[in-house]
Amino acid sequence: GKLGRNPIHVALAYVLAQPFPVIPLIGPRTLGELEDSLSALDINLTPDQVKWLEG
What is the pLDDT of residue 31? Predict the structure, then answer.
């Protein structure tokens, strides 16, 4: 809620924020879903936000 984004966007941003190489797998059914999921690339989680998500 604090980021003003949907949970799926935060989840994808969390995966991308890991300190090791990752490739998030998504399963969009439409081009719109793909474009929506790709908006997670614009989210830069702080270390404190990542820690909170892990807690």
Answer: 97
